[in-house]
Structure formats: C-alpha cells, structure tokens
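In practice, a research group might receive sequence data for several interacting partners and want a quick structural hypothesis before committing to experiments. The following worked case mirrors that situation: the sequences arrive first, and a predicted assembly follows.
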Amino acid sequence: MKQCDYIFQMQRLSVNDGEGIRTTIFFKGCNLRCKWCANPESWSFTPQIMFFSHKCSSCGHCLNICPSHANELTDKNKIIFHSDICISCNACIDVCSAKARQTMGRNFSFTEVMTEIKKDMIFYEQSGGGVTFSGGEPLLHPDYIEKLLVYCQQLGISTAVESCGFFNFSQCRHLIEQFDMIFFDIKIMNDDLHINYTGQSNKKILQNIAQATQLNPNIIIRVPLINNINTDIANFEKLTYFMKKNKLNKIELLPYHSLGYEKMLSLGKSANKYTPPSTDTFLIKWEPHTRDFSRELGDQTSQYV
Ligand code: SF4
Ligand code: SF4
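A structural hypothesis for the assembly, expressed as tokens:
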C-alpha cells in the first residue's frame, strides 16, 4: 500500500542536524520503537493528537465534541486522554482555547516545503548549511524525498539525511548516492538487546549501512548513549570492528535526553525514563579506550557532544 508522506515539523535555523545552519524536515513513520526515542510523535505514519495536560484548564469542551469519547474527566477534575480510541478527527483542537492539544503530522505540498526551505537560503550560504531530512525514518518516503532532493540540488542547497538504517535499500540506492551527508544511528551491536530495546533486529540496519559505504563516503555514525544499555566496552568494541571493516571513521555520541519521555505522556502512552551516562563517569570509563579506538578508526573518531 502506498504510504502517505506526512511531515510533523519543519524546523528552521537548526544547528544539530549537520553542518552550518539548516532547515530540518521531520517525516512521520518509523519501524523501530526505541524505548528512549526522542521523537515518538514520529512513529505512526498518520497524524496523531498530543495532549499537554499542564496547559489544560479542564473546561471540558473536548469531552462534548469528541465522537470517540477519547477524553475523560476524573473525580479530581483532570482530563485523561485515551489515545488508543482517538481517531484524529481534530474536532477537539478547535474548541481547546487553552491550546492543550496539537495535531502532529500533515500532508504538506511539495511547494509548501520548498517555500519553507527557500526562506533561509542566505543562512545556508553564509554558514555552509542546508537541508536535513529527518523523522521518523525519512528513507521510508523515497519518492517525496527524491523530488525535494532534486530541487535542492538545482538551487545549490546542500542535503543531509538522518536515518535509523531500517529502510528498503534498493528503493533508496539512488538517494544514498546523492546526499552530501548521511547520519546513521547504530543503537546497540548485540542483536538480542537491539530487538529488546528497539523492537527490531539490527541485521538489516548494519547491512544497509555497509552497503551505503560503497556508494557514499560522507557517512557519520551516531550513537545515542543510554546508561547501562549501550555504554559498555563490549558494545563499542563491536562497533569499532564494524566501522573499521566498513572504512567508517566518523562517530558522534549523543547523550540521552528525557524530551521523548514527556512526549510519550502527551501522546497518551506509558513511558520509562532513561539516563545518559554522567560525563565524568563516561570519560573515566572510556579514557583508556578512546586512544585505542582512535588509532583503530583514524583521527576523526569520537566527537563527544
Ligand atoms: S482528535 Fe481524537 S480526542 Fe480529539 S475529538 Fe477527535 S477523536 Fe476525540
Ligand atoms: S478543551 Fe482543552 S482546556 Fe478544555 S478540557 Fe479539553 S484539553 Fe483541557
């Protein structure tokens, strides 16, 4: 079935998604379910409602208008949002004067996206920035991205993609060749743990990344650091071996942050809070090893951010 190309955010003046100042386009839809995900509003391929309880005044307008009875008023005058029965009709958005509700995801036309992208041409030129496709998993939208990619190239705008690596490689081969920069996440090297924490095997991901190295030399591996889950030496030894074997020599380590936890609650889902490794502990644990890994991978290893 043809997948819709919903976008849930277009973030201008972004500085964490590649070189320089960028516009980052966030696509909906991902096949992984990382327990620490920073963007769980991206998981579903279709629009979703987020309910921000701290803004809610308990006026009750959403109770009356909802055709699914997805909102409940408790004895303590609090609204509970039952996302599992919400049909995303958006009726409650209009009646909520407190702006406690928001729809994540809409079908932006190609022209709308390009208009947004073109607003910051001057910043791209001055800073060496450009456009980054993110998500969710942007490479699950190859046709839409191809159109944007071609237009960006015509305008001389640099392009990057942030991918979890779980996509159909044959559908994306021509895109992989053309991005100016590719960021691939590798969460955990042990496959059993990967399945446990992300819901999918890492085999296809590692295979896709290995294949991508044959087509594009500008690849950076990113690892979200989750304390006591993927911060052990064994994980990084396996990662180093994989990177060396595939001639990858750039890595960024991203500490976990709890933004995703708050978003999960707003989506009406339960969630666990994780922790990043403390900087001191991490560096003490890693200091004797980073030199070895640097020697293995080359001079550009280990950008601690
Ligand atoms: S979007 Fe969901 S919660 Fe809001 S009125 Fe429609 S069904 Fe009810
Ligand atoms: S309409 Fe908005 S402010 Fe009123 S009860 Fe519903 S969510 Fe809360």
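Before designing any experiment, note the following. Residues 56-62, 79, 95-96, 98, 100-101 surround iron/sulfur cluster (ligand 2) (CB under 6 Å). Confidence is low (pLDDT under 50) at residues 299-305.
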